[in-house]
Each structure stands twice: as C-alpha cells, then as structure tokens.
Design a protein that fits this description.
The protein is an alpha/beta fold. It is built from twelve helices and ten strands. 36% of the residues lie in helices and 18% in strands.
Length: 385
C-alpha cells in the first residue's frame, strides 16, 4: 500500500481566552503556520494539491471556507484550493486523515492539513446560539430532533453531563481529577522550562509561548473551585481551557518526497475513526484505541508515547484505566487542561507535539486520540523515521 509521510509540523503558541490572539483574525493565525510549513520545507507552493483545515463554529470570520481564506492569506498560489471540515474536537486530526487518504489513494501528492480556532472571538457552540437567534433552532447541540429523542430517550445532551457520567462510571473522584490536572500543568511548565516546545512553536509577533500553563496552580486552589453543576465533581480546574491557536502539517506521498527532495519525519502507520454512545459522548477513545491496536497488531507496550486529549480529566483517566495505559506515557508535556484546547486546531496541535516529542526522546510509535462531539473518536498512530 502507498505510504503517507509527515514532512513537517508546526503550530502557533496556544493563547488563553482574551489573551494574545483575542483580536487576531483566525485566517491570519492559520496563514502564519501554513506559510511557515512551505518556507521550512522548501516545497514548491505550486505543487501543493490542497489545503485541508479543521474548524468548527463556522460563523463570522471563521465562516466562508476559512481553509481557503487562510491558504490565500498565506500567499499560496490562487490555483491551490482549500477546504474546511468539522468533526468537532477531532476536526484537524481528521484533516490529516483526509490528507493521508488522498495521498495513499494516489489522488494527491502534497497536502497541507491543519486546524484553526479562535474561541475568544467565537465561543464553543456559538453556531447553535446563532441559529436560535435567527429562529433556526435551539442552542443545545444534537437536540430538538423527534427521531433522536425517540432513539435515545432524551432531548437534552451535554458534554458536561457526559463527563460527570464518566467520572461516576469509572469511580473517579474529584480529588483524583485535581491531581491529574495539577500534573498536566506541572508537565507543561517543565516542558516550557526545558525547551521541549521550542522547535514546534512558531512565535506570532510577541506571542512566543503557550499562555495556558499556570505556575500558581495547587491542589488547594483546585479544591476551592466551584463545581460546574450542583453536586457534581467537575470544575473549571479539571476541564480543558478555552483557547486560540492554529497548526499545520505537510503530508506527502513517496513520489512527492523523491520529486521534491523532501525528508519525511514520520510515517502515518494507522488512522481510523469510531463512534460510541453519543449521550455519554466522551468515551469513544476507549473502543477506538482498542480497535486500532488490534488492527495494527501493536500492544500498549509497543507504543512509546500516547496523547489523549484532556477535554476533562476523567476522559483520559477512564481511557487509561480501561486499556491499562500507564500515565507516565500519556500527555508527557501536559495536555489541554494546561496548554489549552482550541477545538478545531487541537488535533493538529497534539499531533505536532507528539511528533516532536518522539524525535526528542527517540521513540518509534506514538498514538493520538481524542473525544469528539456526538460520541466519536479519531485514532492516529505515527511511526517516527
């Protein structure tokens, strides 16, 4: 079977809500990393077949096919197309999958795949709110459908309720989640201090580092936070941060690697996507990872590094428990609780971090997965070259 290679991967710093990126046009954020990938690899821009960008809540300046807008803002030739996709939090991971599938099918040879999200300007689920404003629907996602309600016995769905359900089902306490969150911040701060992000981050003007990690976080401060729901376990401290950011990767065929004199950094060893219970919503990484390992013949021991998105602390915690994955191999440079979760860009951000950490540590295989709205999860396994 033809191979798909990652030639380069780069990201902006991840900005806090109302932070450094709060007034930056989302297309300019994307253009920043798209142009950098072209410049760093030296690839002929005219040879790029497509630009595939993940982004959700496509309203305002994130509407109108921001993948195309960002490509043009990056200075790519007008002949290079662009497209925007929405698989919720997995949008940019799926963008890489679509790029790899196009390359492996022989349809394309060079594709830039990535993601863009400015959550300061467009808060999560704001597209639903816009629909309600214009009389086009309710603000609650995936609800209001009579057929949906008939199938699942409910008309109200919530990622917060799903996360609470996961914490209850896997007997995860608030205190355990707070320790997980503290570790996420500590790991991210250590990674910043030791320069682990230096090669993957492209500064944007004066924004040079991730703004999310908090040096003043402590178990005492986390314990003092108010629950998101009365009687619940979740707080803002054990949840992913609202963030802004962008990331881009160059995916190439073997023919393109030879024709353009490129040096691939990783091979996409496996890619898949799987659905699960949409009411509990955030559990799909468990069966999706299990199936990916079965299909590849790899075991947990064969994987050197794991990335499981920290939408809420209980999501990777339940995933680790169910699959027997040691926490010391998971999100080793911190996750979305500390770094942030610019939803449409997170998949590409995580993949960029995973690739660079495999290179830094000399690991061979890295597995990435994340929960996604509607009860879906993508899985990618990279092989470092």
């Amino acid at each position: 079977m033809p191979e798909a290679y990652i030639v380069d991967a780069i990201r902006t710093p991840v900005g806090r809500r109302k932070g450094g990126f709060s007034e930056i046009h989302p297309a300019d954020m994307g253009a920043h990393v798209i142009a950098a990938v072209v410049e760093r690899t030296g690839v002929d821009p005219n040879a790029i077949d497509d630009v595939i960008v993940g982004c959700l809540d496509n309203i305002g300046s994130q509407a109108g096919n921001i993948g195309r807008t960002a490509a043009l803002a990056a200075g790519l030739p007008e002949a290079v197309p662009g497209v925007t996709i929405d698989r919720q939090c997995g949008s940019s991971q799926q963008a890489v999958h679509f790029a790899a599938q196009a390359v492996m099918s022989g349809t394309n040879d060079l594709i830039i795949a990535g993601g863009i999200q400015n959550m300061t300007q467009y808060t999560i689920l704001c597209a639903f709110a816009a629909g309600e404003h214009y009389g086009l629907g309710r603000t609650d996602p995936w609800t209001g459908s009579e057929k949906w309600a008939a199938r699942y016995g409910t008309d109200v769905l919530s990622q917060f309720a799903g996360a609470e359900g996961i914490a209850d089902k896997w007997n995860i306490t608030r205190e355990e989640m707070e320790q997980f969150a503290l570790t996420s911040h500590q790991r991210a701060l250590d990674a910043q201090k030791n320069g682990h992000f230096d090669r993957e981050i492209l500064a944007y003007d004066t924004i040079t580092a991730d703004e999310g990690p908090r040096a003043d976080t402590s178990l005492e401060k986390l314990a003092g936070l108010k629950e998101l729901a009365p009687g619940g376990k979740l707080t803002a401290g054990v949840s992913s941060q609202i963030s802004d950011g962008a990331a881009a990767l160059l995916v190439a065929s073997e023919a393109a690697v030879k024709a353009h004199g490129l040096k691939p950094r990783a091979r996409i060893h496996h890619m898949s996507v799987m659905g699960a219970d949409p009411v509990l919503m955030l559990t799909a990484p468990i069966p999706a990872t299990k199936r990916a390992l079965e299909r590849t013949g790899l075991s947990v021991d064969d994987i050197d590094l794991f990335e499981c998105n920290e939408a809420f602390a209980c999501v990777p915690m339940a995933w680790e428990k169910e699959l027997g994955i040691p926490h010391e191999k998971v999100n080793v440079n911190g996750g979305a609780i500390a770094i942030g979760h610019p939803v449409g860009a997170s998949g590409a951000r995580i993949m960029t971090t995973l690739l660079h950490e495999l290179e830094r540590t000399g690991g061979r295989y890295g597995l990435q997965t994340m929960c996604e709205g509607g009860g879906v999860a993508n899985v990618t396994i990279l092989e470092r070259l």
